[in-house]
Amino acid sequence: MADSPLGERQIPDPPTDEPRLESWGEIAAYLRREIRTVQRWERYQGLPVRRLLIGKLGSVYAYRSELDKWYRERQPQPENGEEDTEKAGNGEVAAHVTVSTEADKQKSQGQADGSELPPPRPRITRLHITITLLTLLIVAAVTPAVYFLRGGRSPVRSSSGKIRLVVLPFANLSGDSQQDYFSAGLTDEMITQLGRLDPERLGVIAATASKLFAGKPIAEIGRTLDVQYALEGSVRRGGNQVRIDVQLIQISDQTHLWADSYTGDLGDILHVQDEVAAAVASQIRVALPVGALGVNGAKGTARAVNPEAYDDYLRGRFYWTNRGDLHKSIEAYQNAVQKDPSYALAYAGLASGYALLGQVPYDDMPPIQAKPKAREAAERALQLDPQLGEAHSVLANVSFSYDWDFDAAEREFQRALALGQNDPTAHQWHSHYCVVRNRLQQALEENSRALALDPVSPLFNTTRAEIYYNDRQFDAAIGQARRTIEQYPTYPLAYIWLGSAYREKKMYKDALEQFAQASKLSDNHPAITALYGHALALSGDTAGARRALADLQRLAKTRYVSAFYFAGIYTGLGEKSTALDWLDKAYKERNDRLVYLNVDPMADPLRSEPRFQDLMKRLHLP
Q1: 3-state secondary structure 553-589
Q2: pLDDT at position 295, please?
Q3: Strands 20-21 and 57-63
Q4: Are 235 and 186 in contact (CB under 8 A)?
Q5: Could you read off the pLDDT of 127-142 as tens digits, one per residue?
Q6: C-alpha–C-alpha distance, residues 386 and 429, integer Å
């Protein structure tokens, strides 16, 4: 009998000399179903999947004959959202799966030495690269003919005119929830890597939408996100050994175009990312021009990386993406660059962390400390890899929000967007730059590009409300903020712009309710305390506004509180001279929100003041 963990069913001895399907990806591709579907079949309906323990970890495998027999006996119905895209012929399930011969050889070798996983994949040499490129060119030439012979199923482009792909969250099969950051970070890395392939023609959906739609039927994902392809997979990690199973699905007919498994050492993880990206590109080549691969590709990233540094990098990325704890994000990135001083992506991540930590509403560090650190890390990243769009985005952010050098910011944004059209953060920060420059229609267009990549992001949806607010379209801002809150009722930033729009419509009771809710959700963040105090002052509650000032003073004893916040409440109280004194202090702090005052309705009472006009000139604003 085959070995199995205690309590698991025993499967009879395997057929003699029959090739095996060596991963969930291959099994799913053979059965023409999603990985999660066949995993449920195995768990609840007895699908004959075998397990092999290798050290602390395990792998799965199955035999075609056993799957065929099970399928004939069960005839399982398609699950919700799935289609039975191919009938079984002569009792057998047809499979369309491409696996590398090298991987087959590795996976078929028995592991008698007790190692956790099979030996690492060998380093890629120039010969390997040449062979890979030749293979891709051959695939590019023959794929259209294959599609024609298969019935002319050419992929349908999205309404945007691009081919669109979603990378679904990789499942963590390590049996350790503490490794969730690793699978989440690896998913984000694959999104970034694929986004660099051909940004003019290939759109890759960003992380927020990917996570929100995890577990949804493929057909529903395709309709809602307007995508033609989905990449899904799983990760199993033990120490520095990792196994990744991936498969590419064509949404239109649920076809599993390709599946493969990658097993090896974390030191070769960047090679694996490149290989997966190349394989995906080869499968959707019919929709892209022959020369698409590598147009803006991450040239030079396919190098060995310190496994501990990579682990820290993914941990830093996890905290940055969730905006949950920027200090933890920065600490993880710092650990990564200490362990691997040539790790350009880790420096870019460190730069992004400091950039956010020094600006509203994440401002837990004075800008005069945080922004120079962001610039230093970004410049170091570009010394190591001049093609990193993420680092150019940080330099653009620092240029307009801290240096007030808008010409430099314009150049850096153009470079960042040229390198990272599929980077939603670049579009997000550029939309803010356009607000500051009073190019509000362009700001909306950039926000639309960010939303096209991450349509359900609470941040990007809230930014749209902020743009409407600054454009004085207060009803549109209210509608947009309300829609965001319906989907994300615990997201405090949406309440900020809903409250701000109500305030400008002199609906002070409604505004105060929104600011109070935002304060509750953000644990009394000073930015929201200031907005609440400002609205109290405008509503006529002078005593309440002064209590808010006292609250800010108390907070300032235990954390950084910008002078900008005090200026807001004094503006509401009508004490213009005092408000301008605090704005001068904010100028010395180099608070990033100063450059928004040129368009922010909140500053209207100060516009005729000579000192305010002088401040705008010092900020290089018209």
Answers
A1: HHHCCCCCCCHHHHHHHHHHCCCHHHHHHHHHHHHHH
A2: 38
A3: antiparallel
A4: yes
A5: 343 333 333 433 333 3
A6: 20
